Amino acid sequence: MIARDLGNGTRLLVLPSAKWKTVSVRVHLQADLDAGRTCRSLLAAVLLRGTRRFPDMTALQRRLDSLYGAALGAGTHKIADVQLTVFTLNGADPRFLADTPDLPVQAAALLAEVVRDPARAGRLLVPAYVATEKENLRRLLRSQKDSKAEYAALRLAEIMFVGEPYGRNELGAAEDLDGIDAERLSAHYEDWIRTAPLDVLVAGQVDVEAVAAACAAFARGRAGGPPRAALPPRPESGAVRTVCEEDDVRQARLAMGFRHGAVIGGAGHAAAEVTNGMLGGFPHSKLFRRVREKESMAYSVGSAYDAGTGVLTVSAGIAPGACERTAAMVREAVDELARGAFDASDVRASQAGIIRRARGAGDLPASRLVQRYVWSLFGASYAEEEWVRSISSVTGADVAAAAGRLRLDTVYCLRGKERG
Amino acid sequence: MGDRARREILCGDEVHTARLECGTTLIVAAKPGFARTYGAVAARYGSFDRTFRRPGFPARATPDGSAHFLEHALFEGRSGNALDAFSRRGSLINAATSYRATTYYFTAVEDFAAQLAMLIGFVRTPHFTEASVAKERGIIRQEIRMYDDRPDVVQHRLLMGALFARHPIGAHIAGTCASIALVTPSLLQECFDAFYRPENLAVIAVGDLDFQAVRAVAEDAFAAPPPGPRAGAPAAVFEDETGAAADPAASRRMSIGCPKIAVGYKETRGAEEGAVLVARRCESDFLCEMLFGRGSSFFARLYENGVVDESFSAYGAVYPRIGCIVAAADTPRPAQFIAAVEDAAAHGDESLVEEDFARARRKFEGELLRRCNAPESVASLCLGAWVDRAGVLEALETLRRVTLADVRTRARAVFAPEGRAVAAVLPHEWEGEPAWPAARRGS
After folding, report:
1. H or E segment to which residue A375 belongs
2. CB contact A73 to B (< 8 Å)
3. Span B362-382, average pLDDT
4. Does residue B142 belong to the interface with chain A, where contact is any CB pair within 8 Å?
5. Which candidate in B145, B172, B296, B307 is best for mutational testing of the A interface (most A CBs within 10 A)?
6. A61 CB near a chain B CB, below 8 Å?
7. What is the pLDDT of residues A382-394, one digit of tens each?
8. Contact call for residues B375 and B112 (beta carbons, < 8 A)
9. Per-residue DSSP letter, B55
10. Beta bridge pairs of residue A304
């Protein structure tokens, strides 16, 4: 990996590799998960509408098509209390094409135009684009309930982290949209794009010097600093919150949140991951074997550990009347892990699955770069061998201790209006 | 040893295709430098094979969801569960049933040969008991309910049912809670005997692999003769479809944020396969891209007027005997959306011009390269070609061969007004004007 400081709070990280058929360019813009998040979520869409040189969607899309169907995308994500706005451009590797040998440079330059040189009407972002994208975002927020599994996870986070930044929707809030017009959005854009920590990540077979020269356009006229550290939410001790909601669904969705506390690269991170694997991370886990394979109560059941928040979540799609019973089975499985009621082979299986994932991540363009970026937000540096070693050294006693630290915080259940 | 292997180059990587001694096809694609290795066993058996005939036997009708049920049941082996066995070795394991194939696959970073042999063992050694079938039925019932709550799945099924009166494409691949209640161990055994013959299977391996080594493992795993009587390859039996849509409009209410509208145009064809089928798919892709793609005037006009957003998609589905072109979107203005699609379809072939054709071809070339980035997507390319009975390079060669005239001819054939149907999934609270023809189906 080659790191370059492009100046003005702008950094470039390149992973040169001939392994892929593509060159992928990503831009990460860091911000607080605060009231301005709706503006940035909107900007992720507005900036894709056009640049000064390609001022509407058709012109921009035709430019992308001419670059062998380069794929342009943007979106917002949350990591602990950070909102990350990400722009991506995936282009073909010119080694496999008849022409366009400088495609990686053109791709990086085009992404810089999208982010830094948007289509404008006078000094403002194009008001018609802002108006359409406001309605699109309003609709997107309403449609978050379309996927019941995702909706249950969203509600769990809102309830569990109420009052904390992580409880906010990274896509923004519908009620904020009314107060946003082209004037306000343009002001927000100018300030954010000038000061937000900006990282450019490039993976593929590229001429590093040429790409770095093209990426200088990202840094021009900025006055930013390096990304700030991400702050995980503070654990809350109190009674378990239980929320049941009804909707027109044929299957109930159960989502449970356990606070643990181990964060990325910190003490106990590896043990928390192995514990999660044994609870519900893999088909050999307690939840999969019991809830699905033994009781045939679910098709999808599993758990995930978010080392950004130090929280373990469980998710299941079950029969409408089975929420309480399933929640009890989950609590029992956690207790068993804490008591050490498992085989050494379960620990090894979980370790093997996590190591497979770590080894395989290097096959995905940009995956290593993103991992390195996210770990750095927690003051940690990711190294594959070191991570594999720390996963391998987790013992049964570590797992029992990690499970013992899991505190059930919130139980959320979405179920059908007619029980039965 | 089986017959000689064919060696081809797909986007810079070697692909070997051979036939094993037993008749099974073997495809090995190289991904040098990759840590992940992908292995799969596939059977040409999917939901389209609901009614089938074996040489010397009468036609056999089976319940919807039988192929998918068999996929679940085969992972329950005599000496344990495949999901557990692979997961304990750290590997990712899963299976999928589509319209025309069932695929069992895993991703590993070590010990590939042993796990490929293990997968072949699971797929070739059925062990169906009343207890294991009852257990899987409970799991599948929850899977079906999950799909029933997914508006995209519901919409697709509504549309296919509205377009096709008799073809199994109108039924869900997993079946219904009622249809899977009819599945028994003996039915599963019968379907297994019919479709899991070695000559109806393929083994696909993608990764940093040596072809001869994989071939030796596969030959070895297939060495034992298959159990059961040899009856020859089964063929799906279809009732005739007319060119007209079964139902011009179908709708359902669900708990969703915005109306989801899909407009489909139906095609009926002969039982095409191989290069002919691949060419038809390629023409469909060009047609959708040129008429409805992100760079089209259709998309720009509708997007700028707030009729569609990023959720818009247009695609061609192409199978032997049937196919369709679909344009779908989440839209706050269903009537405008439907009218715009109809208008584009009616004037389809006039708006197809050389410049857009050349642009689309360039785009598809880049997309094919992107698909060759990961072992999983290379494997799906190889699998798709095998299911179509085409070569692995056929898609790329067709892309270079197809002409604008072919696409224009296709446009004239596919957009017949009587073959059109609309499927709408609407929010409960939606009170918009009735935007589509009055006839409705569903709840």
Report:
1. helix A367-376
2. no
3. 95
4. yes
5. B145
6. yes
7. 999 999 999 999 9
8. no
9. T
10. A313
Asked if A355's CB is within 8 angstroms of B90's CB, the reply is: yes
Helix axes A344-361, A269-276, angle to 10 degrees: 110
Quick check: A250 and B148 CB within 8 A? Answer: yes
> Among partner residues A65, A295, A360, which is closest to B363 by beta-carbon distance?
A65
pLDDT band at A61 (very low <50, low <70, confident <90, very high): very high
* A92 to B89: CB separation less than 8 angstroms, yes or no: no
Check if the beta carbon of residue A309 is closer than 8 Å to that of residue A262: no
Q: Which residue matches tokens 């062990």?
A: B127
| Mean pLDDT score of chain B | 93
Q: What letter represents residue A82's amino acid?
A: V
B409–chain A nearest CA distance, Å: 24
Q: What is the pLDDT of residue B242?
A: 87
Residue type, B186: S
CA distances from B408 to A280, B405, B417 (A): 53, 5, 17
Q: What is the mean pLDDT of residues A388-413?
A: 98
Q: Is B301 helix (H, G, I), strand (E, B) or coil?
A: helix
A22/B36 CB distance under 8 A: no
Task: Tell me what the mean pLDDT of segment A56-70 comes to.
Answer: 95
CB B104 within 8 A of CB B119: yes
Q: Which pairing describes strands B51-53 and B60-61: parallel, antiparallel, or unpaired? A: antiparallel
Domain B249-427: assigned CATH number: 3.30.830.10
Could you count the other beta carbons within 10 Å of the beta carbon of residue B247? 20
Q: Give A143's contacts in chain B (Cβ within 8 Å).
A: 256-258, 330
pLDDT tens for B305-338 read 999 999 999 999 999 999 999 999 999 999 999 9
Q: Which of residues 55-114 of B touch A (CB under 8 A)?
A: 81, 83-84, 86-93, 107-109
Rounded Cα distance between B2 and B393, Å, is 22
CATH architecture of the domain with range B6-236 = 2-Layer Sandwich (3.30)
Cα–Cα distance measured from residue A43 to residue A52, given in angstroms and rounded to the nearest whole number: 16
Tokens encoding B137: 């039925």
Work out the pLDDT band at B229, boundaries 50, 70, 90. Answer: low
> Residues B268-290: pLDDT tens digits?
988 899 999 999 999 999 999 99
Chain center to CA of B225: 30
Residue type, A154: L
Residue B31 CA to residue B23 CA, distance in Å, equals 26
Q: Each residue of B35-47: pLDDT tens digit?
A: 999 999 999 999 9
> Cα torsion at B433, B436, B440, B443 (round to 10°)?
-50
Q: What is the largest CA-CA distance in chain A?
A: 68
Select the residue from B72, B370, B376 to test the A interface by mutation, using most A Cβ atoms within 10 A: B370
Confidence tier at A418 by pLDDT (50, 70, 90): low
Ranges for all domains in chain B classified under CATH 3.30.830.10: 6-236, 249-427
pLDDT at residue B438 tops 90: no
pLDDT of A50 over the 70 cut: yes
- Residue A41 to chain B, least CA–CA distance (Å): 14
Q: Do B367 and A69 touch (CB under 8 A)?
A: yes
Helix spans in A220-322 (H)? 269-276, 286-287
Residues of A in contact with B372 (CB under 8 A): 21
Q: Which conformational region is residue B399 in: left (phi greater than 0), alpha (psi within -120 to 50 degrees), or beta?
A: alpha
Domains of chain A: 2-219 (3.30.830.10), 241-416 (3.30.830.10)
Q: Which two tokens stand for residue A350?
A: 């979980």
pLDDT at B443 over 50: no
Cβ contact, residue pair B369, A56, below 8 Å: no
Q: In this structure, how many other beta carbons lie within 10 angstroms of the beta carbon of residue B7?
A: 12
The rounded percent of chain B whose pLDDT value lies above 70 is 95
